[in-house]
Amino acid sequence: MKATPGHLVFFSSRKRLHRIFCAYSLLLFSLFGVLAGCSQQKATPTYRIGFSQCTNGDAWRQAMLAGMNKELSFYPEVSFRMKDAKYNSALQEQQIKEFLKEGIDLLIVSANETEPVTPIIEEVYNRGIPVVILDRRTTSKLYTAYVGGNNEEVGLMAGNYVANLLGQRGKVLEVLGAPGTSPAVDRHRGFTKALATHPGVQLVGEVNSNWERPSVLARLPAVLRQHPDADLIFAHNDRLALGAYQVCKQLGLSQRVKIVGVDGLPGIHGGIQLVQDGVINATLLYSPGGEEAIRTAMRILRKQPYDKENTLGTLVIDSTNVLIMKLQTEKLTSQQQDIQRQQQLLRQQRDTYASQQTVLYVLAAALLGAAVLGLVAFRAFRVNRRINQTLGKQNQEIRSQRNQLQEFAERAKVETEAKLRFFTNFSHELRTPLTLILGPVEEMLTASTTDLPATHRHDLSLIRRNAQRLLQLVNQLMDFRKIDVGKMPVRATEGNLVAFVREIMDVFEKPARQRGISLRFLPAEPVIRLWFDVNILDKVFFNLLSNALKFTPDRGQITVSLQLVPAENSVRVSVEDTGRGISEQDRAHIFEWFYQGQQSAARGSGMGLALALGLTRLHLGQLTFTSQPGQGSTFVVTLPLELPPALKQLDAAPQVTPAFALEEGIAAAPATVGELPTLASSEALVLVIEDNPDVNAFLTQKLQPHFQVSSAFDGATGLRLAAESIPDLIVCDVMLPEISGLDVVAQLKGDWRTSHIPVVLLTARNAPEQQVEGVQAGADLYLTKPFNPTFLLESLRTLLANRDKMREHFRRELSVDTVTVAPQRVDQKFLADLTAIVEANLGRSDLSVEDVARSLGISRVQLYRKVKAVLGTGVTDFIQGIRLTKARQLLLDDEQTIAEVAYQLGFSSPSYFSTSFKARYQVSPSEFRALHTTPSV
Q1: Could you tell me the pTM of the whole model?
Q2: Into which CATH architecture does domain 817-932 fall?
Q3: What is the pLDDT of residues 40-63, one digit of tens each?
Q4: What angle (nearest 5°) sits at the alpha carbon of residue 500, between those of residues 495 and 501?
Q5: Cβ burial 62-75 (10 Å sphere, 16+ → b, else e)
Q6: What residue ranges do the domains of the chain occupy?
Q7: Cis check: omega of the bond before 511, within 30 degrees of 0
Q8: Pairing between β-strand 570-577 and β-strand 632-640 as defined by DSSP bridges
């Protein structure tokens, strides 16, 4: 573009402004540097203290930590960290090693057990890091200082006090702390040593504990029953003393047996309060030592004189001095609260001072900046006036060009609308004759088989299959044109991608099973929630699975896996097959429209993969593939975890749920998954459970021409296969190893997953009482050996027909009223519970299959298979049917508007409710109300 004089003036002015602003910025930075230097204060040193606590789960340990925090409030330069080992010596050793890696200046240790942690404490000390032992000693003298009470002295004082309290005569029980801990050992040693000087006082029993009250409640009653004449209980802490009191109260001994504890903590649950309330007779003060530990640590860190042994004093708190002790502790607590309030006020004042100082600096800088900017603005005003005149002319030219672009865009829009209208009308014109072809053909095929010769039926099936294929091609061509002209919008709703893909795969289970293809589903997570358009991704995954099934040979394998990729903020869905793979010459064209490849077999329309790629890109995702000739192909769909808000439907339900789309789509387009056979009795799966190999093979041979057959040779395997595959019918022998046939029937009928499956029992036992026993176990038919194979085959067909009638009966029950039949059998009970859960959540627009399954305590797959087997429909269709049935009742009430009915039943919008209602009943809600209500006069 050629430079004009106006551009040269503008560029020259920009350079001058740039130099002025650079000088101004340098001046401001210099000013702030000076101000910051004036306000900079000398940094205070920071000390890092690590505290390894054996546990912080009891009041005494919490009081220790509270004392530390109280003392630390006077040392703001200290960084303090605590690690709680939770009574785990190995964990405490690991936590001390972590302190060493993190870097500390001093370590405070309250050991869980003396022996296990002694080596690591010695290692810390040998590294030159000061170590303060708190409360529990170690077996080594390699430490800097010790802070804690003298547990042996506590035991001595307790023994002398107990002797005086009992008048130098009586029997005593001792509740010890955890075995092996130094406080328990020392207190017991001092207590027994003191009692030795008082011959009239006998220690008649001991109870071990873990320092916690529940252990006393479990162990003390037995000891008290052995020594009912005990006069006093000495507990190693106040929690154990409280437990002893509760046990004595339960046994009716609380008025006679005296109790003495240790700790003497303040507070409503502390030992001082227990003495004042008369729960225990006395407690010995055993200071937690938190404040003393921090004071000793700070003297060590500041290189000040300190004592290596800091033994805390103790005293007896009983009725004579408990009030004074309580008042003193309350006074100390009040004073500490006052100190904390004053410190908080001081911090607030410092913050206020700092903010005011900052405002002052900013104001000074702003004044200086205003003066500089005034000079710059005055000099730039004259230059900008000339530049604006030049820019005005250029803006006029830009506006003229923009108007031309808008005209071109409007013209292209009109042409695009015309193209889309043409293809839409053309598609509708093709669908009309296809509907007229498919309707009579379906009617003829469903007529009586005796009236239609086999050759004619074969020709009609060929006509139906190719008509459905033509309809599918029309739909794909329409999608292609919508993508091409940008008229296929993305309407994403939030859902579970794992459940969505699982339901699509359910469609391919039968055709895959008929060809012996293993269909595996491997999600990395049980639930992956994201925003996606069900209509778009349904076509993408349907085409990929159809393509995989078409090119996978019999006895092959198809694997679908889902994996979150947090690093890329995406989720990957891969479809892997073991087919022939993609040749080198086809790889560059595999995603081209109408490209059919160089392979002679399995030719298609050439639109499936191209459509899948276009729809994936439309969903802001990627579709890639890898392939090795002779080993198979893998197609990977990568979807973003987040979509732009413009693509999300926050106030609308999904247009088509996956269950509807799959159940209707597979019926409308079976050609996409290869040669899918028409529905016949051979699709029914029969499970044979027979331990005799010859009989098992005979049954399989006779049933295979008419059904799909799987077999098991024992009851346990049969039960497992029944729960996994959910067969349509089970033929079971009575005499089976380990689990009998009668037990197999009882377990099948008692399990909701298999309760609906008819069971035929075969046995050589033909006594009437044995047959009655089989029927009582729940068998639907009892046949004795030898049996007529033809009679068995017809019996199986009759049982399957009866099951279909029962399923239709359940569906009619549900379509007339949302209340199911009385739950007399397992299936009826299951339907009653399922309906009750749905009715209780009708108002939830976000009610999902996962929510219903979670309420029933089962998995989504189990719920789907059960509902499919009992009702012949999907879970989503079941929920929708209950909502629409309830809608008919509510619409008869003129006091509620149609919109209120829609929201009351959990529909996201009245329009979606009207569409769903009309699709089910062929009339809109308003028309239904007008037909069934009488207008008021």
Answers
A1: 0.36
A2: Orthogonal Bundle (1.10)
A3: 444 456 899 999 998 887 888 888
A4: 140
A5: ebbbebbebbbeeb
A6: 150-287+313-319, 492-671, 681-802, 817-932
A7: no
A8: antiparallel
